[in-house]
Amino acid sequence: MASLVAILDVKGKSLIQRSYRDDVPPSYIERFLPLVLEMEEENVQVTPCFSDEGINYMHIRHNNLYLLALSKRNTNAAEIIFFLHRLCSVLTEYFKELEEESIRDNFVIIYELLDEMMDFGFPQTTESKILQEYITQESHKLEVQARPPMAVTNAVSWRSEGIRYRKNEVFLDVVESINLLVNASGNVVRSEILGAVKMKCYLSGMPELRLGLNDKVMFEATGRGARGKSIEMEDVKFHQCVRLSRFENDRTISFIPPDGEFELMSYRLSQSVKPLVYVEASVESHRGSRVEYMVKVRGQFKRRSTANNVEIYVPVPDDADSPKFRASVGSVVYAPEKSAFVWKIKQLGGGRDYMMRAHFGLPSVRNEEIDKRAPISVKFEIPYFTVSGIQVRYLKIVEKSGYQMPWVRYLSVNGDDYILRTITDAKSSSMIAPL
Amino acid sequence: MAMAPPRKGENYELRQQLNSEYRDKRADAIKRVIANHTIGKDCSGLFPDVVKNMQTDDLEQKKLVYLYLMNYAKTQPELVILAVNTFVKDTADPNPLVRALAIRTMSVLRAEKILDYLASPLSRCLKDENPYVRKTAALCVAKVFDLKPELCVEYGFVETLRDLIGDGNPMVVANAVAALADIYEASLALPTTPPASPGRSSTPPPSSKPNPELFIIDPPTLTKLLVALNECSEWGRIAILNTLARYRAVDEKESEHICERVMPQFQHVNAAVVLGAVKVIMIHMKAVTREDLIKSLTRKMAPPLVTLISSPPEVQWVALRNINLLLQKRPDILANEMRVFFCKYNDPPYVKVEKLDIMVRLASEKNVDTLLGELKEYASEVDVDFVRKAVRAVGQVAIKIDEAAERCVGVLMDLIETRVSYVVQEAVIVIKDIFRKYPHSYEGIIPTLCSNLEELDEPEAKASLIWIIGEYAEKIENADELLGTFLESFKEESYPVQLQTLTAIVKLFLKKPDESQTIVQKVLQAATKDCDSADVRDRAYIYWRLLSSDPAAAKSVVLAVRPPISLPQTTVAPAILEELLAEVSSLASVYHKPAATFIGKGRLGAEEMQRRALEPEEENAREKALQTVVAGQQAENLLDFDADDDQPQSSSSGIDGSQSLSMLGNGGISSTTISNVAKSTNPLDELMDLFSTASMAAPATMPVAPVSTVSGIQGLQDDRSDAFAGLTGLSSPPQGLGSGVTSPVQGQSQQKAGGGGAQDDLLGLF
Fold first, then answer.
1. What start and end residues bound the annotated signal peptide (chain A) (predicted)?
2. Are B281 and B261 in contact (CB under 8 A)?
3. Which of B98, B139, B185 lies closest to A120 in CB terms?
4. Is B269 at the interface with chain A, CB within 8 A?
5. Domain tally for chain B?
6. In chain A, positions 275-334, which contact chain B (CB-CB < 8 Å)?
7. Structural domain boundaries enclosing B544
8. Where would I find the beta strands (DSSP E) of B503-660?
9. What digits encode the pLDDT tens for the residues B479-490?
10. Do residues A129 and A199 share a domain?
11. Which of B160, B283, B455, B636 has its CA 20 to 30 A from that of B166?
């Protein structure tokens, strides 16, 4: 529970705050940043939660803002930190960007939201779609007063009644992000697939849905393992609309969906994945004069698939200048703010490989700092393909006569952490011909 | 306001507008008032004018006026009464949103006068037909209890709250549970009538204290909670899980039932729900004996914990801190999952450090090669602090896994070759630990270390290298030369380095007396004459006397065999670990400190004590007390034996050097030490007051121990000779820092303590 929630700017000044309990005076907000700075100065790790003089400070960062909660008790830290993240996403959904400007412009509505989302320090409703039904930017003019939507307290707290569509449609997106780490010798050290099933639901009334996947556990339980490929999802997380006990019993995913767009479930597989887009770079560095790169990329997936919008980030020294590039395909730009150059390839066919070279000047004065040795990172998306082989077998809409096949799309993309440490120093200069 | 308000300025203008006849103008003015309040201007002077605008159909305007009231009611208690009428009227408004808003606001106004008018609207709202109003009213009871407990008791609000647990609406149930838990916690802080018997259920309810029986969860309530758990919102689930964690199951079957019903919550997206479920299961699993169920519970716990690692960094950190605790209790849950803890390049530093710690915890013979490769990679990053910790982790792995020690040394030698100053220094510190664990195994690397002598500029690294030279003086040909260089700069060195130089040269002399006569004379001279540190001087005098009177005794003292070191499985004492595991996801589990150590001072500390006193079974509490005393003694033991250790530990240092030096310098263990221990194990001394009979004797006699026995004398000498060791060793277990190393002797005494209670342990020690 939190006694006080505040949003602070980068200088530690409170932009907006709301007290929920009287045990922590608001004056403690001003102490937050000085404490952080003091810790930084004394080389103490600044952690999301810390305590000072009996007051516990819990905070998260978003852009240039601190979202801070104070408490005097042995609070549930996970709850409060998670709440602050939720607050962040609700405010972002309301104002597109959550930043100083948007907070100043919308203080009235933020007060209303803070009042509704937390009461006496206990989080209440954080579902932004529901909040938007009765807290809107248009101030309510006299005629109709807003009423609390049923959903706020309903067992189905995420959907309002009386929704109508002329055309009932459901879209399903199965997106798998691949995180992996390749070490210097080209071996995969760690890999995981983070999958998500996203839905766009335009259905009338209170539809009852059931989703069937090629889930191995369920196949085995029902004795149909022989047919087709099945996958073993290690850890499944569901949107709160899914009946967890039902899933625990017989692996049925049944739910009443929220209206519109939402993420139905996410799952994780730690099966080993080979890098779909493999990149290696060799560097020849001449301290004080220049540095040369040779980068190779290979699409390691089926020939009939294509990776779109491939972006390869190769790190270069901070002080590199006068870039020169030559690429067999795509375009290359220098991104000095990221200390990297980016090789962009619109379409990379499966089984194809390409090369590029880069040349940078280096200042003659030696940089005292050692090289950061950042790894290469890659962005890409491969449509109509999932690494795990997950398939949507059916989506049944119960209570409606007959059922329809929803629109299903599959997509594989890079995760936040698709990293290759395959930058090697060229041993002999003959490996790289002069540009 | 006594003074007449000024007739110009912004507030004057606002007042004009607030009293304007046009609705728009007034609405606008209210917004401006709130805007001014937001930027920190004092708007209390406008109180009556704002309150006039309370009665309106415009919901937004009403909310703003309420917000204003919440902030300024305290400053204008006598004017609040103006608002009462509208409030009471609003609590009967046809719109449930307005009813809830009114009751919600009314119950937080800190004004005695309002409270008197609150009772009847509140009882009405608690029975409102609309669940939104009921769930809001439920929390209001907790608010009122915070302001005026007597009122709650008088009107029986707590009983009504209790009835709401049976409400058909899960959100109402959740809020009622949350409110009850809050009231329960607050009621413990209230002054009690003299406790006739401290049992929870038998105290007669004093006027301001609600009947404690209201907070007991009975089996029917449990069923209701388990049903609501599956139906309510994520935040409601957290409240219910917290309550389930407090519930004491009547038998094993019920514990099993709870575990099975809570398990599905692992699949929830909300990290706090997942951790809450982990907490409940960790608590109720203790009563479960069915092997297959325990297995399935631990197996199912792993994937959700792993998934928490892909949450936003702050959530990740909270999860990692908790995982760290869980692993201390059940190291097997994540045995095969080390890879997920590999640090990402862009992880914030606080996450990286935590991951590093967990990786070392999970290191085993199977995965050690991958881990070492990874650690080596980290050692080439830019963040100095992280690099150091990575190097340190290599050393910890070497000490943890005997088979991997050689590979670790290999990695450290590679790192030393990089010649990056801080990497080399950290590696030297770590290698000294390895020498300590595996004496005489890796002497081949000593020349390489010595060749890096010039690079060392940090005291700890220097001291470590000097220790190594002293320890292996007989094998190093030019040991006297090397130590001579340190002697030259003796006066400029920091105290730890001086102490180590002194000891190392004495060791050298005892090993090779012929060649080092002059150098030992010099160092004793320098240390006794030119040094400002009492510790250094004292130690030098002791050596001098020892050497001059009885060289054989000196040999047995200075060159005594040191107990080997090991990496402990836990960073906190077992009793505290249990306590923290019962609090998973709370701040206590995140800080790895019992709540009493960081919540409030004085009054709240007392609150904690009362809570303990009220533990239902006195026996239970007594047992706990004994455990805590044992824990305290471990802290104590750690102190002696660390001082005995000729070796700074591989963990981060807890207490600043000078303090610990002076403590040890004062003749080994003194009252300062005791108070220090007491401070760090706060529950210890509280409990001591409570159960003074059996346990009081133990700590009181402890400090005398090392001095009054034969082995004690040696202990004392070593204390002094190696006070330096205290530098890193002193932090005591409850702080979770002094984790580096424990000696087997200490382990022994722990066993005894565990077996025979406090006093047995004392005897055992002698």
1. none
2. no
3. B139
4. yes
5. 3
6. none
7. 460-559
8. none
9. 888 888 888 888
10. no
11. B283
